[in-house]
Write a structure and sequence with these properties.
The complex is a heterodimer of chains A (277) and B (314).
Chain A: H1 2-36, H2 40-43, H3 58-66, H4 69-100, H5 106-114, H6 122-134, H7 141-145, H8 152-163, H9 168-175, H10 180-191, H11 193-209, H12 212-217, H13 226-236, H14 241-261, H15 263-274
Helix pairs in contact in A: 1-14, 3-14, 4-8, 4-11, 8-11, 9-10, 11-15, 13-14
Chain B: H1 7-16, H2 27-57, E1 60-62, E2 68-70, H3 74-81, H4 83-99, H5 102-113, H6 121-133, H7 136-147, H8 153-160, H9 172-200, H10 204-212, H11 217-245, H12 249-255, H13 262-265, H14 268-278, H15 282-310
Antiparallel strand pairs in B: 1-2
Helix pairs in contact in B: 3-15, 4-9, 4-11, 5-9, 6-9, 7-12, 9-11, 11-15, 14-15
The chains are: A mainly alpha (277), B mainly alpha (314).
């Protein structure tokens, strides 16, 4: 009896510590939403009010009139979709060859591809900018996602998934006369769906959150994604926190929504990236 | 994890396939190159060629009307002589050091969540991960508001404990730490998931046996969890270091241009951005980027050397 009570006390203490941590993690977002709904006069009050005196939605309207926020959101969606689709296609094709086909120079090429992982992205930004400029794509949607469509991490992740599949599947199909692409497309690819989903969510998140690259290639507000758009909102509304909180809320909500819907895949992709060691 | 049933199985499969193909190019071989070609072309255009170009740029100076002239190692000399570089480097190392604090935090939370029969584990995990998913620019703005010297909530809360009002991000002596704290806050959830996956792989029997021998929770943490988690911890620390050495977003958004502490908080990548795209000093920027890569490679190598001393492979 005494032992069980001690256990329960331990549980309570654990929950207490964990909940305190959870509050620290989530409260800033609650404060963000509450601030967005207050008037500028109200947020400049000391001590601050917790709930808004009257619920004021005008900051949200102001965000959309101050900047082409609607276009920016669309740009972010397109950039995210392009980058994710590109990685799924290019990485799965290459990963399949590296995992399941034999060819001369395979290990050397794979090593070369993986070396991309080691290079900080800032090292590539200058020449990448020149290339995009030569293609005449500055201030365009493809500029946002073109280099990001090719990923060493994605190739590595999908290769691991392909390696784990049994060999017999392919052999049976090959005896039936199916070609390599057919085997890849209709047999192997459906089997690594969980890995594809994991890659898709992690890529989508990276694309949505990207800042340095968009700031460099798309300087025209109409072509900026929402991350870069928020930085110019900050420039315009240096001290108007309700407007900045409204803008940052709108900008982060789409990805949070994806997270809520596909949480399992987020967790799996992160857990995988940790099992490399 | 159900996603990758066994890395061991994958490694075994790796071994089954011969290292190099003995036969000359066949139809199957050509097909393989076809699979790789799209990614290979993309890598060549956007990664390998730019790598070579940056290396070349770092020995040249860009003219005001395009074109560039060979200047040898001038850019490197300029970078190494520049005080702002050393300051940015110092700041970056501080960010890296502070950022690494996310690891012990995440391990402690993961160990707490590992408590037998604990309810709500998935809920906690989901909540701790939210800051990592959130747009860094939005995170920066939210924390700017919390840190605000006049009306910020942080000063208000600290005021209850008698702490004086402070301008956290415009005072150079606290700005780096204030930004570093946000980095820790936003990455803890990421490492938490990595460590939870690592802890899950530790057999329950170990804990039960230790408990029968009378080992308390602290003892179990230090003699079972920590040593068996050390390979995961090693991997996480490598990732954390590489990421925080390249930090840019949070600083860029939290500092802005008018903040008096801009120079005191600038990271190496921040300085690179300024040189390359604002001050048009591309050659020096390329040299700086190259030195950053060498620094990352060097520190990663050092970590791999040191791991023998503390990482425990079961």
């Amino acid at each position: 009896m005494a032992d069980r009570r001690r256990l329960d006390m331990g549980s309570v203490a654990t929950h207490l510590v964990l909940s305190l941590g959870a509050v620290v993690m989530v409260f800033p977002f609650l404060w963000q939403a509450l601030t967005a709904l207050k008037s500028l006069a109200e947020v400049s009050r000391v001590p601050p009010t917790f709930l808004p005196d009257d619920w004021n939605w005008s900051s949200f309207d102001e965000v959309f009139t101050a900047l082409p926020f609607r276009e920016m959101l669309t740009n972010s969606v397109l950039a995210t979709a392009g980058r994710t689709a590109g990685q799924l296609v290019f990485c799965s094709l290459a990963a399949y060859a590296f995992a399941r086909l034999r060819f001369r120079g395979r290990d050397l090429l794979f090593g070369l591809f993986l070396s991309v992982l080691m290079v900080p992205s800032s090292l590539l930004v200058l020449p990448q900018y020149d290339i995009i400029q030569q293609f005449g794509l500055l201030n365009s949607t493809p500029a946002l996602f073109l280099p990001g469509m090719f990923s060493a991490f994605g190739t590595f992740l999908l290769r691991q998934a392909f390696l784990a599949l049994p060999k017999e599947l392919e052999e049976a199909a090959r005896i039936d006369g199916a070609g390599s692409f057919r085997i890849f497309w209709s047999i192997m690819l459906p089997l690594i769906r969980p890995a594809l989903a994991a890659l898709a969510v992690i890529t989508a998140m990276t694309a949505w959150n990207d800042l340095l690259w968009p700031l460099v290639v798309n300087t025209d507000p109409e072509t900026m994604p929402i991350s870069a758009g928020l930085t110019s909102l900050k420039g315009q509304y240096e001290t108007n926190y309700p407007v900045m909180m409204a803008g940052s809320l709108i900008a982060s909500l789409p990805m949070l929504l994806v997270y809520v819907l596909l949480q399992r895949h987020f967790v799996q992709s992160v857990a995988f990236s940790g099992s490399k060691g | 994890m159900s996603l990758f049933p066994a890395t061991a199985a994958a490694k075994a499969a790796d071994r089954r396939v011969p290292k190099s193909a003995p036969r000359p190019a066949s139809r199957g071989q050509r097909a393989a190159y076809g699979f790789i070609a799209p990614l290979g072309i993309g890598f060549a255009v956007f990664y390998f060629w730019p790598m070579i170009q940056t290396f070349y740029f770092s020995f040249t100076e860009f003219g005001p009307f395009g074109g560039h002239t060979w200047t040898g190692t001038d850019n490197y000399a300029r970078v190494l002589r520049d005080v702002t570089v050393w300051q940015a480097l110092g700041n970056t190392l501080i960010y890296c050091g502070v950022g690494l604090l996310a690891l012990p935090l995440a391990i402690v939370v993961a160990a707490l969540l590992n408590r037998r029969g604990l309810r709500g584990v998935a809920v906690y995990r989901a909540l701790y991960f939210v800051p990592f998913v959130t747009l860094p620019v939005a995170v920066g703005l939210v924390w700017n508001w919390l840190y605000n010297g006049d009306f910020g909530l942080l000063n208000e809360i600290l005021g209850w404990f008698g702490v004086d009002r402070h301008y956290w991000v415009s005072d150079p002596s606290t700005a780096v730490l204030a930004i570093g704290a946000v980095m820790v806050w936003s990455t803890t959830g990421y490492y938490l998931i990595i460590f939870m996956a690592g802890i899950k792989a530790i057999p329950r029997d170990y804990y039960e046996a230790a408990e029968l021998d009378g080992a308390g929770p602290l003892r179990r943490f230090f003699t079972i969890t920590l040593p068996l988690l050390s390979p995961t911890l090693f991997f996480a620390s490598v990732i954390c270091m590489i990421q925080s050495l390249q930090t840019f977003d949070l600083i860029y958004i939290m500092m802005g241009e008018k903040n008096p502490a801009v120079g005191d908080t600038q990271s190496v990548v921040g300085l690179f951005y300024k040189w390359a795209f604002i001050e048009n000093a591309q050659g020096a920027a390329a040299a700086l980027a190259f030195l950053l890569m060498l620094l990352i490679a060097g520190l990663t190598y050092l970590q791999f050397r040191l791991q023998r001393k503390w990482v425990h492979y079961g």
